[in-house]
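Example complex used in Figure S2.
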Amino acid sequence: MTETLKQRIHKAVINPRLQENYRRATASALVKNRIRFETPALFEDLRQQAHDIRAHVVDNLHEYIDQAEAAMKRNGMAVYRAATDEDARRIIHDILKERNIRDIVKAKSMLTEEIELNPYLEARDIFISETDLGEYIIQLAGEKPSHITAPAIHKSAAEIGALFEEKLGIPYTEDEHLLTEAARNTLRERFLEAGAGLSGGNFILADSGSLVLVENEGNIRLSVTLPRIHIAVVGMEKLLPDRDSLALMMELLSYSATGQKFPGYMNLIRRPEKGKEIHVILVDNGRSRLHEDAEMRVLLHCIRCGACLNSCPVYQHVGGHSYGWAYPGPIGALLTPLMRGRPEDDELPFMSTLCGQCSAACPVKIPLHHLLLRLRHRRKKNLLLWNAGMKLFKWGATSPTVYRGAMKIVRILQVLLPGEGLPLPVWSRTKYFPKFAKKTDPGRRADA
Amino acid sequence: MHKRPDIRLPDVEEDLTVLFMQEATALNAEIIPCSRETLQKVLNDAGVDLSTAVADADAAAILNDSRVSTYSPGLTHARMDQYTAGISCPDAGIAKTGTLVELSEQDGDRRISLLPDTHVAILPGSKLLPDLQAWLKRNGDLNQATFISGPSRTADIEKRIVIGAHGPKRLIILLLG
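Predicted assembly (625 residues):
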């Protein structure tokens, strides 16, 4: 039986080791991301341009998909469109089956998590090696990624050391260099022999039909260079008009993901080499529905950098697994209910303090916390009662007399109400009610 | 379809050589300014064993050393994996990010800068460009291009940086004056 959202969150916040792992990992990312703010005006200028480009692509999405598909076909790539996750899985399996390939190396791709590709292929006797170090670690552990760009962020070196000792037969170590070397040696053999390499895709340049893949480890280079077949699974919204747009996005992508100026490797792939095949699968799986939603369409601007995860105080505490799907953090709290839409996903937009750190970090200026609030509104079943409650609060919170009166009543009730275990007395004892200032200070207005 | 919005990227104002060296060094690449005459000595001092190295045709011609194997498309992946160093002549260097650009033809030569533990790039200073946009504007048609910034790396274990993940562990850039 799968755990509920509340059970997952509870498990994460009571686990001190997990809390320490997340704290360390997101703090490190935040420190690096501070580089951005050395030139805040430039960052603002670039992300406004990036927003405009992504908005332009999403507004003209179907034209750009047609253009990209035609260009990639001209370049000798095979292009497929998958309407659903099931279609995408079947297309990939068919490509492998027709060529009798049972052995693939796989680069990190959140989309393959979204379409739950690995269990599908494994059930059909395809042997998959995850090759990104983080993905490899969690594949060995039989777990799921907990972060978009750092999938094993939830595991400590000690846990990884014990895992490698058990699965790879190396002596126990917490030294990240020795652990990395062990993974490198094991996976190098797999790269040399694999029948196909499977990757995601960061961008497709629509005018020239070029596929762009960025990474640091070299596992994507190996996956797309050595095997004869390269299969790329790409969200249909991951398009850019042309090369200048790519130059712009590359000013922002690595900064936002890892605090780097540029990725260790960027692969720009336009034509397959002689005797080789490139298959590109453009996946819809709910994106068209999102595209028709005028208010939420802006979520298709996302370039999957993970900046909103690192900056989110809720993500830092509940961790990636709590969200229950491929995309955690603020972006996941929006995409999961809108794209997957199971009843239990309705709670996800409430996993936010609405502090706005996510929106401030987003390199394509998605107003994430505003959208979270909007989605809460949509999901509120009893809007009448909710609105009446908010009106009552507004009346009380904007009138010093009513506010002070209400606080007095609460203090009296606190004493009168019976003991431990009941929500209101416990809650109100730990809350601090701010006092009204004598005079409005114009410099401290919240909306200034 | 509407025209896409205009794009304005910041100009690179620094000296290209100084900037390239500074950025590539920050990425743990070893940059050695040298001349054609001193190439062998520099490689020797850097601990590169030319007798177990493979070079692309351009690099082999510049090195002109009988110990070095010249790349051929027929080399198997397993054979390529046994070389300790791959020597290439990149298409360009990008100063702003300390990046090398390797163009690929149709014969799997991307493996030279990928499979051996050490990648040596021979780059004349005249091949430096200010930024990615400048390179993309210049190179209209291509099959595949690889942009290389430093040796391979990972931070997947507790966010601690390890140099030498799946790709080369060392990147040596010989900057020809």
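The mean pLDDT of chain A is 90. Chain A touches chain B through 69 residues (CB under 8 Å).
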